[in-house]
Amino acid sequence: MLGLSELAVVLVVVIAVLSAKRLPDLVRSAGKSARILKAEARAMKEEEKQDPPVGAEGAESAAPPRTAPAELSTPPPGPAGEPGGAPRQTVRPTPPSAP
């Protein structure tokens, strides 16, 4: 009878053999994600060094709050709870006719 550790080893080998074609792409994608995360963390540290800490001298001169870029923000839910929903139609009043 196989124990838990033997079953785990067999399972890892089977997964590696069956997914050998996709494995390089997965590893490459993980590497890119790690590099992006590392660059963003480094940029945040640089930004913190440039900006004075809030609460220090001159709290009135604190930077305004950050907002998300427009392309990343989600639109408000539509009438049926769907994102965006149907576009709203504006109804313009017709001008009174001249006599």
Describe the structure.
- With 99 residues, the chain is mainly α.
- It has helices spanning 4-18, 23-50.
- The chain is elongated.
- It is a single-pass membrane protein.
Which characteristics define this entry?
mainly alpha
Compact overview of the structure:
The chain is mostly helical and 99 residues long. Helix content is 43%, strand content 0%. The protein has a domain at 4-51.
Approximate shape: elongated
Mean pLDDT: 74
Low-confidence stretches: none
The largest β sheet comes out as: none
The percentage helix is 40-55%
Strand content: under 5%
* Strand segment count: 0
> Number of DSSP helices?
2
Give the N-to-C terminal Cα separation: 100 Å
Cα radius of gyration in angstroms: 28 Å
Q: Which series of helices and strands comes N to C?
A: HH
Structural class from helices and strands? mainly alpha
Region (Disordered): 41-99
InterPro entries: TatA/B/E (IPR003369)
Pfam families: TatA_B_E
Keywords: Membrane, Protein transport, Translocation, Transmembrane, Transmembrane helix, Transport
